[in-house]
Each structure stands twice: as structure tokens, then as C-alpha cells.
């Protein structure tokens, strides 16, 4: 089978909830990321794109009706370019990239764009539709921004705890202290700021038209564990998780372009998709699921953790990130060396391709050969991808 190669990556700056991108529709954000990644391969005729696979976690508002196809149309691509939208919650766009790579390997297409988008600001409230007209009682509107909604009563209560409570349970299970979590969070902010200052993100991030936002909006340079220690816990009175050591709510979009071996796009590929992994466990343990997803991906790539020079692990919570790094027994310094989601942000459907594109550029910068991108997913799942630097 032909191998799949990552040729380009682009994303918008990630905005804060209610921040600079609050007025931008998710389908417009998706179109910006799609146009941005195609601008990096100017010799490519867009009509050659065999498919667009787009990730989106909410899909209840302006991102309904196949937001991937909306992005294709809004970006001005030929109407002959098809698109689909996939939903694996936080892993949606990494799932999209995995699907795109399989599409190329199977020979069904030579060029595929994968990406994802989320506007958590603009996620609507929803009402359950009654089975009969005009119910006599009141009806409650439910926010679709984050987490469980309209839960099926048949689900066991332990499966449907809040994302924060699930990670407080993880902190107890692995004895991960508040101090470690705060130090990890501060590191994320300081590394993200340093990466922006050094110009690392200049080639990865494209501006959103008519929006005055050139960098990720949530980064707080000068953070320290001492400064974060004063914040109150969010989920338990005596808990360890605070707004500072968990990822925030965000708006943004990201995309990558994949092509088959030997396909001439006018630009050299950055990395080869070498292995993929998926794992599932009890829903409340979702934060720990990347451990086995990454192990599966490494096995399929034919390498071990000893070969890996860079890791991009989506920082849903500091505690789950630390639990995964501890389980892998790897050098923490190779993880999220350009900052992570705690600082950069976590617009759910966009984060998977954000970490994949960042990983490819990290390998190009460092010269390391192998990298792993991993992401935990609510309701007890995770995905991981191993890539190989083609210049190593």
C-alpha cells in the first residue's frame, strides 16, 4: 500500500471563550484553516483533492449540516471537492487525519485534507424535542459547550460524572499532587510564550480576516506554580483541579494536508504517517486512555518509546497528562516542548490536527526521527498517531 505523508499544517490562533473569535462562525473558522493549509502548497490544483475529512465535537449550531463541506464551499474550492465531518469528541480532527491517511493508503485518493473546528463560545443551548406537541411543564435549555448533556438514564452514574470529577478521581488513583499539576500548567504557559517569541508558530498560524488576534489568546507568560497555588479548586472543595491547571474553553480551527508517496505537490513532505492507535476503557478513566493508544501506535510503527524524540499530548487536564507521561516512563522534557492546550487552548474539534501539525514542525526543527501525537477523549477513549520525520 502507498504510504501517507503530511505535507503541510496550518491553524488559526486559538481564542478564549467569549474572546476575539467570539463573533466568527465555526464554518468560517474552518474555511480559514482550510485556505491556510492550501496556501502552503500553492502549486496544488484544489480540484485534485480527493476528499476533505473534518472533525467537530458539538455540531449542534452553526456547525451543523456537515461543517467540513461548508468549509470547502466557503473557502472557494471547486464544488467537485467532497467533504465529510466526523465526531469523536476531543479526538475528532486526529480521527479525521487517521481516516485521511487510511484513504491514501488504500488508494482511494492521492490528496486529502484533514482538519477540525470548534467554537465553544457559539455552541448553542438545546431543548429536547417532545414526543408530543405542547408539553404542559417547563422545558430546560441545555448548554452544548462541553460535557454530557441529555444523559440517558440507563447510563451508570459513575460513567457520567463531570470531566473534572473524573480527573479528580485520577489524581487520587495516581497520587498526583496539586503542586505537580500547577507546575505542569505553568510550564505550558511559559513554553508556549517562548515558542511564539522564537517564531516557531509563525509558519503554522494564519490570521482570521477582520480579527485583531495574531497569537493564541490564553497564554500567560511568567506563570509559576506559586502564582497558581492561590486559585480555588473547581470541582471539589478540597480538590486539586483549578481553572489554571485544566484546559480552557476555546474557539479555533486547524488543518493538515496529506498525500500519497510520490505525489508531486511542489513542496516536500514533512513526515510519514507511521502508526495509528485507538483505545477505550471505562468512561470516567478517559484521561488515562492515551497510554495504550500510543503504545498501540508505536507497535504498529515498529518502534518503542526509546526511539521517540518528541511527544505532543493534548493537555485536557494537567493531572491526566502527568498520569500518561508517568506511565510511559519517558523524559517529560520531550512532551509539549512548545506549550500545550492548557496555555494554547483546546477548541475540541480542532485540537487533534493542532498537535499533529505542531509535532511535524517540532521534528523538522529538532531533526529527531520519531514523534507521537496523543489525545484523550471524553466517554473513555483516546487516539494516537506516530509520525516519522522524512529528513531524519
Overview of this protein structure:
- The chain has 392 residues and is α+β, with helices and mostly antiparallel strands.
- Helix content is 29%, strand content 19%.
- The chain has a domain at 4-122 and 247-387: Thiolase/Chalcone synthase (Peroxisomal Thiolase, Chain A, domain 1), CATH 3.40.47.10.
- It is built from ten helices and twelve strands.
- The strands form two sheets. Strands 1, 2, 3, 4, 5, 8, 9, 10, 11 and 12 form a ten-stranded mixed sheet that branches.
- α1 (26-39) packs across α2 (67-74).
- It is globular and about 55 Å long.
Report mean pLDDT, rounded to a whole number. Answer: 97
The CATH H-level homologous superfamily of the domain at 4-122 and 247-387: Thiolase/Chalcone synthase
Q: What's the total count of β strands?
A: 12
Instruction: Quickly name the level 1 CATH class of the domain at 4-122 and 247-387.
Output: Alpha Beta
Amino acid at each position: 500500500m502507498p504510504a501517507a505523508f503530511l505535507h503541510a499544517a496550518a491553524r488559526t490562533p486559538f481564542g478564549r471563550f467569549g474572546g476575539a473569535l467570539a463573533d466568527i462562525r465555526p464554518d468560517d473558522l474552518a474555511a480559514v484553516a482550510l485556505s491556510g493549509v492550501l496556501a502552503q502548497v500553492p502549486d496544488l490544483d484544489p480540484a485534485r483533492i480527493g476528499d476533505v475529512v473534518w472533525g467537530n465535537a458539538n455540531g449542534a449550531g452553526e456547525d451543523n449540516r456537515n461543517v467540513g463541506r461548508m468549509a470547502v464551499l466557503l473557502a472557494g474550492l471547486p464544488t467537485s471537492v467532497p467533504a465529510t465531518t466526523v465526531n469523536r469528541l476531543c479526538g475528532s480532527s486526529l480521527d479525521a487525519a487517521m481516516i485521511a491517511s487510511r484513504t491514501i493508503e488504500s488508494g482511494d485518493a492521492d490528496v486529502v485534507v484533514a482538519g477540525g473546528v470548534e467554537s465553544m463560545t457559539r455552541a448553542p443551548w438545546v431543548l429536547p424535542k417532545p414526543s408530543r406537541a405542547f408539553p404542559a411543564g417547563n422545558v430546560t435549555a441545555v448548554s452544548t459547550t462541553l460535557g454530557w448533556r441529555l444523559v440517558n438514564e440507563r447510563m451508570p452514574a459513575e460513567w457520567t460524572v463531570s470531566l473534572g470529577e473524573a480527573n479528580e478521581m485520577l489524581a487520587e488513583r495516581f497520587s498526583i499532587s496539586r503542586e505537580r499539576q500547577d507546575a505542569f500548567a505553568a510550564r505550558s504557559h511559559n513554553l508556549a510564550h517562548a515558542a511564539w517569541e522564537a517564531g516557531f508558530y509563525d509558519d503554522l498560524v494564519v490570521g482570521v480576516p477582520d480579527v485583531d488576534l495574531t497569537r493564541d489568546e490564553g497564554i500567560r507568560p511568567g506563570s509559576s506554580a506559586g502564582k497558581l497555588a492561590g486559585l480555588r479548586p473547581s470541582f471539589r472543595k478540597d480538590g486539586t483541579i483549578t481553572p489554571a491547571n485544566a484546559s480552557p474553553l476555546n474557539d479555533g480551527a486547524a488543518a493538515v494536508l496529506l498525500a500519497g508517496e510520490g505525489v508531486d505537490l511542489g513542496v516536500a513532505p514533512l513526515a510519514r504517517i507511521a502508526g495509528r492507535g485507538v483505545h477505550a476503557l471505562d468512561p470516567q478513566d478517559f484521561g488515562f486512555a492515551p497510554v495504550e493508544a500510543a503504545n498501540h501506535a508505536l507497535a504498529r510503527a515498529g518502534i518503542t518509546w526509546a526511539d521517540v524524540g518528541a511527544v505532543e499530548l493534548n493537555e485536557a487536564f494537567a493531572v491526566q497528562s502527568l498520569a500518561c507521561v508517568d506511565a510511559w516512563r519517558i523524559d517529560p522534557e520531550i512532551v509539549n516542548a512548545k506549550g500545550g492546550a492548557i496555555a494554547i487552548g483546546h477548541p475540541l474539534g480542532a485540537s487533534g490536527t493542532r498537535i499533529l501539525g505542531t509535532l511535524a514542525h517540532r521534528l523538522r526543527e529538532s531533526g529527531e526521527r520519531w514523534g507521537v501525537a496523543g489525545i484523550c477523549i471524553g466517554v473513555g477513549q483516546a487516539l494516537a498517531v506516530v509520525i516519522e520525520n522524512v529528513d531524519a
